[in-house]
Amino acid sequence: MSSVRLLVGTRKGAFVLTSDGKREKWDVSGPHFAGWEIYHMKGSPVDPNRLYASQSSGWFGQIMQRSNDGGKTWEQVGSKFLYDGVPGTHQWYDGTPHPWEFKRVWHLEPSLKNVDEVYAGAEDAALFRSKDGGTTWEELSGLREHGTGPHWQPGAGGMCLHTVILDPKVEGRIYIAISAAGAFRTDDGGKTWKPINKGLRSEGIPDPNAEVGHCVHHIAMHPKRPGVLFMQKHWDVMRSDNAGDSWTEVSGNLPTDFGFAIDVHAHEPETIYVVPIKSDSEHFPLDGKLQVYRSKSGGNEWEAMTKGLPQKDCYVNVLRDAMAVDRMEECGVYFGTTGGQVYGSRDGGDSWAPIVRDLPAVLSVEVQTLS
Amino acid sequence: MELPQHLRTLAKVSGEVSLEVEGAVTLRAVMDELEARYPMLQGTIREHGTLKRRAFLRFFACMEDISHRSPDELLPDAVVEGKEPLLVIGAIAGG
User: Which of B40, B48, B90 comes nearest A59 by C-beta?
Assistant: First the structure.
């Protein structure tokens, strides 16, 4: 029988939540790395017992961890993230040049083919790769050096490369996204990159239709239809049907199109989920009601999923990497909040129940479906 | 040498760490020896590459903050002789 494992990164440690295929009762393990910020954990698609975790602290910097037994035990691996060559400058908040400085790893994306290969999205924005299970890291500097880098500037949360998507069909194609530079794509394994932001419109930058400078919050893709991308931008939910070459807005009837998280149903590539947040200055749901919005038409037409979620006095946020789906026959959807709750739905979003209520603020949620 | 709790956990040590340093006992020499003996601490006190002290950490010795002294300055005799610890102190801040 299949089982499900949630990898939950929080402000004060990592938690591993496991359940059998019924997804009714959950075992909670943790905190691992207590007291440290765990921006992200993710398992290898090649060997689900191989996990990678990004552990960081404002005091002590970046640590990387690896598990070979599904999170029961961990070993510290390499954390020497050095930019390739002289990294130069990007824009600071006030528009002045600011030197690239490594701060932390926001997102880990294990290879689809090699258990020891893993990508790391960093702040200040850069993509790193390890081919030896996280022991050593090299920057894929073609991204930072492709030409627009000096014009990138940080979002309020820092200039982070937070999204890494490996295309399962097109060899060498990788999508990444940076706040607040935008989305980029390589078709040659990371040597050369191009911005893919045509169609994005952001009122907060001098040219709303600029090639770069957009605050992309997250991108999601269905693995069986990798040319179709869904994006939660700072404001606006967007869709691309041509691998990011152009985007169209699909916010439709959402009550607010600000938000962070977005994901795609495991078996229905046109079914997508977002969690609308009131605004960029009020990082909480509208009217104190926590609502997941689901579209079964790939956007534009959305319905509120509220059953089992708090519908009064709820003022939490759901961060960009804090939503994930399992691959069970009846797709499970999960998200974590800054209030420390992790909610799960066993029926594709129709109804929800808390799995845990009182973790530290949740930074990320990933799901492994285990056979 | 006395490390903050999180670094003791990483290094899998409890209590103070004793180091044998050859030659002049400077902060740089002590840190080099610490990182050689406990490579898991590389990057946690001094940044990778630049070897600059991380911003939220300070070095105290014999009740003095020596963080801003040259890393090549000799440490106080009491530290060299193992009578006083070299302290790595994290900023007391929120969270």
Answer: B90
- Per DSSP, the three-state class of A248 is strand
Sheet holding A27-32, edge to edge: A27-32, A13-20, A3-10, A362-370
The pLDDT value recorded for residue A156 is 87
Distance from CA of B40 to the nearest CA of A (A): 7
Over residues A265-283, mean pLDDT:
97
Tell me phi and psi for residue B40, to 5 degrees: -65, -10
Q: Which DSSP string do the residues of A95-106 spell out, in sequence order?
A: SSEEE----EEE
Residue B95: is its pLDDT beyond 70? no
Distance (Å) from the alpha carbon of B25 to chain A's nearest alpha carbon: 24
Q: How many separate domains does chain B show?
A: 1
Contacts of A60 in chain B (CB under 8 A): 4, 6-7, 10, 44-45, 54, 57, 90
Counting Cβ atoms within 10 Å, is residue A95 exposed (0-12), middle (13-18) or buried (19+)?
exposed
Compare CB distances from B56 to A59, A63, A102 and report the shortest one's residue.
Answer: A59
Interchain proximity A60–B7, CB inside 8 Å: yes
Cβ atoms A259, A273 nearer than 8 A: no
Contact of B42 with chain A, judged by CB distance below 8 Å, is answered with yes
Residue A20 and residue A24: Cα distance in Å, rounded? Answer: 8
The number of distinct structural domains making up chain A is 1
Nearest to B49 among A57, A76, A82 (CB): A82
Q: Residue A96: what pLDDT?
A: 95
- What's the CA dihedral at A347, A353, A358, A361 to 10 degrees? 40
Cα A58 from chain centroid (whole Å): 21
Looking up residue A207, the CATH number of its domain turns out to be 2.130.10.10
Q: Which residues does chain B have within 8 Å of residue A62's beta carbon, measured at their own beta carbons?
A: 43
Domain with A145, as residue range(s), is 29-319+343-353
Q: What gap in Å lies between CA A338 and CA A248, rounded to an integer?
A: 30
Q: What chain A residue is nearest to B9 in terms of C-alpha separation?
A: A33
Question: Which of B46, B48, B54, B59 to probe the A interface (max A CBs under 10 A)?
Answer: B48
Global confidence as pTM: 0.97
ipTM: 0.95
* Residue A48 domain flag: yes
DSSP A260-306: S-EEE-SS-TT-EEE--BS-SSS-S-GGG---EEEESSSSSS-EEE-
